[in-house]
Write a structure and sequence with these properties.
Elements (H helix, E strand, L loop, with lengths): L12 H12 L27 H12 L12 H4 L16 E2 L5 E2 L46 H10 L9 H9 L4 H8 L7 H15 L3 H4 L5 H6 L7 H11 L27 E2 L40 E2 L21 H10 L48 H11 L18
Antiparallel strand pairs: 1-2, 3-4
Helix pairs in contact: 2-7, 4-7, 5-7, 10-12, 11-12
Bound molecules: heme C (2 copies).
Length: about 425
């Protein structure tokens, strides 16, 4: 039984650290910068103490600046489109980047919304509400495999990835920052000495990007119809309520086990427990990387993540995504193998009952179930409801349940009129 997400749900962890850092001037040491002997990332080494507001404003400019990429056309916002809830701007399974802008990425672009509470990666997570000796398995961290410890750590990756913004090294990024139209703002915000120093300049940029991604109005506004319902300001329709019941029912959708839907300790739900599960999503044969039949994206155990390569029990596991704003996405699962929300729901209902609808046939004519995971790792596949059915049994979800679930998931889209009134939970 995994039910995670309590410990970090109550407050924006990073926002708290940053505000503490920016207003009180106390360096906020954190476990995320645990390189032995190194000063914590948040220790202020600038000549001026930046304010959260100034960091957000500079971070916004960085986020939208295509000048930071080798191709000159790709910004963070190109892949994390604000008009698409900071997720992919189109229906492509993966986005293109690189020096020429022609290299295909390896994974679907996640939304950056509601990631303010993602805990640091832990291989042995335990929820502080329960018995701490109960190991609930790996949870937290940034990206689909949790290999980035924080948003600032994460931002370094796309800037340097050959498939994304494709800077050859940190110096190349620093040169671009020095020549950016907003370069002078670095000195206004961080004080003198920041511009000529590559390491300081990059740290300043990453801190700004991270702080921008903490902007509540943009990244966690809680303005969906469902939030309005939680605040008792809005009524859900009978169909939406039926969908919520299916979502929560452990014998039906059981969705809330991994995508929690209830207010907990006063905090609104994020619709993810940050845990890792192998759902056995079909191989996306349209991906360039998958042209090589030997290539497998195994999530936690590699190849993008390298430190858990020997933990074979984790192969095939990816971090549970938030379902907020999911109805507006056109790309689903870590490999973008599915393009319609209704098909995600059908996958949950049919994976084990009608595998021929989801997986190809092998040379012997038999259905090649779990074709994106080498046979040695089959034991890692999740078989909790709704993925617990055996051939011949009734599916956990019928057509009416799926229609109801779709209606409910539609209530998780931000920007629902009346709900935008306040940010505080009811209780
Ligand atoms: C070419 C497309 C592309 C660009 C450009 C890009 N990203 Fe991403 N981003 C991705 C993909 C794909 C992932 C998932 C990576 C993975 O799981 O390995 C991701 C993951 C992330 C995550 C982790 C989200 C989570 O839920 O864990 C953050 C944060 C992020 N990106 C921020 C940024 C920032 C900041 C920039 C600009 C400096 C940026 N990205 C530029 C494609 C892109
Ligand atoms: C045992 C945990 C678990 C349960 C139960 C579960 N999910 Fe998921 N869900 C995941 C994980 C993990 C992923 C990502 C898998 C991947 O990409 O390989 C995911 C992905 C998704 C996605 C794709 C989101 C995106 O951004 O790509 C949707 C939609 C979704 N789940 C909805 C549901 C619904 C609806 C239910 C109930 C019928 C449900 N899930 C039950 C763990 C779970």
């Amino acid at each position: 039984m995994r039910q995670l997400g309590g410990r970090y749900a109550a407050a924006g962890l990073w926002a708290t650290l940053l505000l503490g850092f920016a207003t009180a001037g106390r360096p906020a040491a954190t476990a995320t910068t645990a390189t032995a002997g190194a000063a914590p990332f948040y220790a202020n080494r600038f000549t001026k103490l930046p304010t959260a507001r100034a960091l957000t404003s500079l971070g916004r400019k960085l986020f939208f600046d295509p000048g930071l990429s080798a191709s000159g056309v790709l910004s963070c916002a190109s892949c994390h489109d604000p008009a698409s809830h900071f997720g992919p701007p189109n229906g492509r399974s993966v986005q293109r980047g690189g020096v020429q802008g022609a290299s295909e990425g390896l994974r679907a672009v996640p939304s950056l919304m509601y990631s303010q509470n993602i805990p640091v990666f832990s291989e042995h997570y335990s929820d502080d509400e329960g018995d701490d000796s109960v190991d609930q398995g790996p949870a937290g961290g940034r990206t689909w495999d949790g290999r980035a410890e924080s948003a600032h750590d994460q931002a370094r990756e796309p800037l340097l990835s050959a498939l994304e913004m494709a800077n050859p090294n940190e110096h190349a990024i620093a040169v671009k920052l020095r020549h950016a139209p907003y370069a002078a703002e670095f000195e206004t915000v961080f004080g003198e000495g920041v511009l000529p120093d590559d390491a300081q300049l990059l740290r300043a940029a990453l801190l700004s990007l991270e702080t921008f991604q903490q902007d509540p109005a943009l990244f966690y506004p809680y303005t969906s119809k469902y939030d309005g319902w939680l605040r008792r300001q809005v009524a859900l329709t009978p169909q939406e309520l039926r969908g919520l019941a299916v979502f929560n029912d452990p014998a039906k959708g059981n969705c809330a086990q991994c995508h929690p839907s209830a207010i907990k300790e006063g905090a609104f739900p994020q619709f993810t427990d940050y845990g890792y599960v192998a759902l056995g999503v079909p191989r996306n044969r349209a991906l360039a990387a998958n042209a090589d039949p030997q290539y497998f994206d195994l999530g936690l155990c590699g190849p993008l993540r390298t430190d858990l390569a020997d933990r074979k029990q984790y192969c095939g596991m990816f971090r549970t995504p938030s379902l907020r704003n999911v109805a507006t996405r056109r790309v689903f699962f870590h490999n973008g193998a599915v393009h319609r929300l209704v098909d995600v729901l059908r996958f949950y209902a049919e994976r084990d009952l009608r595998p021929e609808r989801w997986y190809p046939r092998g040379p012997d004519g038999r259905v090649w179930i779990f074709d994106d995971l080498p046979a040695a790792y089959r034991a890692n596949i999740d078989h909790e409801p709704p993925l617990d059915r055996r051939p011949g049994e009734a599916p956990a979800l019928d057509a009416a349940d799926i229609a109801d679930l779709l209606a409910f998931l539609g209530t998780l889209t931000d920007g629902y009129g009346a709900a935008s009134a306040g940010l505080s939970p009811v209780n």
